[in-house]
Write a structure and sequence with these properties.
Blueprint (H helix, E strand, L loop, with lengths): L8 H21 L6 H14 L3 E5 L2 H11 L7 E5 L4 H9 L3 E5 L21 E7 L8 H11 L2 E5 L7 E2 L2 E2 L6 E5 L13 E5 L2 H10 L21 H34 L13 E2 L5 E4 L3 H10 L29 H9 E4 L7 H16 L2
Helix pairs in contact: 1-7, 2-7, 3-4, 3-6, 7-10
The protein binds pyridoxal-5'-phosphate (PLP).
Length: 370
Amino acid sequence: MKVDVFSLKKQYEELKNELKEPMEKVLMSGGFILGEDVGLFEQEFAAYCGVKYGIGVNSGTDALFLACLACGIGKGDEVITPAYTYIATSLGISMAGANPVFVDTEEKTYGIDVSKIEKAITKKTKAILLVHLYGHPADMDPIIQIAKKHKLKVIEDCAQAHGALYKNKKIGSFGDAACFSFYPTKNLGAFGDGGMVITNSEEVKDRMLLLRDYGRKGRYEHIIKGYNSRLDTLHAAILRVKLKHLDGWNEKRRKNAALYTRLFKESKLDIILPFEADYARHVYHLYAVRVKNRKEVMEKLAENGVRTLIHYPIPIHLQECYKDLDYKKGDFPIAEKYCEEILTLPMYPELTEEEIKYVAEQLKNICSNI
Ligand SMILES: *Cc1c(COP(=O)(O)O)cnc(C)c1O
């Protein structure tokens, strides 16, 4: 049997007929840039998250970058953010001209360690940019409390957590702005790059509208030096169809995760399984476990047809691109340790019970022979 870590083919086959008409409509209309579906999807997705405004942009990275600018973050400012995440989180901060200030990982949920945030605050700190990593919500209440106390903005990186709940409320509805990616393998993915910023602030919304479209007011009047970062109409039309399926897909991810967890517990494997906090509804963008002898486990799984990945092998503070910030090994021990142990198993809604059982069986055989 072959099991891939992600697979988009089954989903496309299931949606093919449903997508035909909306895609054809865009192709026939010629309104490829900021066409009708963009505004409709912005409204629908913002409403889904329980937030007033949505502003489509061309990637999750740009959503982060432009949200920072729209929140007034710029040159010389500091933004507190986790050391353990995808590089795009901190690149968004850097693109805005600010410096990321890293904080270590919370041991169970893989999110930012809230208890270490206050120590990282300086006079230059403008915001906390947290990540709902792997689909598990960050602990928002204490984060908001710290932000209020120190008058900081809160920006949520929701790229891995479309539809996840914190205390029964959608993530993305807590911060001054929240950033989504519609990269194809995300829980809600386009057929290319795409992203969105959502916000309840009219001011952030108005700035975002300028920033993503050349700072334009009217056709040839430009009131700020803006960018070209728009969500394509074609992707918006596709995402409108897909949004109707998001809750169902997340439910399937949760079911798949529950089956993995049950099988691993039954076979008493010596691996660390994902954790779901009491406050959280996890949407399992990734099902990541921690294993000893990762390299060997990965190789043996691959020999048996199971493809896995590492999210992430290098913590952000040790990335070469951030050597100017003078962080060193040992600064964030939890993040560094997890980078050595973490392993992403196959996870997507269409994964079958047989496939999950096969992966669990292979992992059991491999771990009992190491
Ligand atoms: C995917 C991802 C991004 C970036 O999104 P793109 O659409 O690929 O630019 C940002 N942050 C996190 C945590 C991600 O997983």
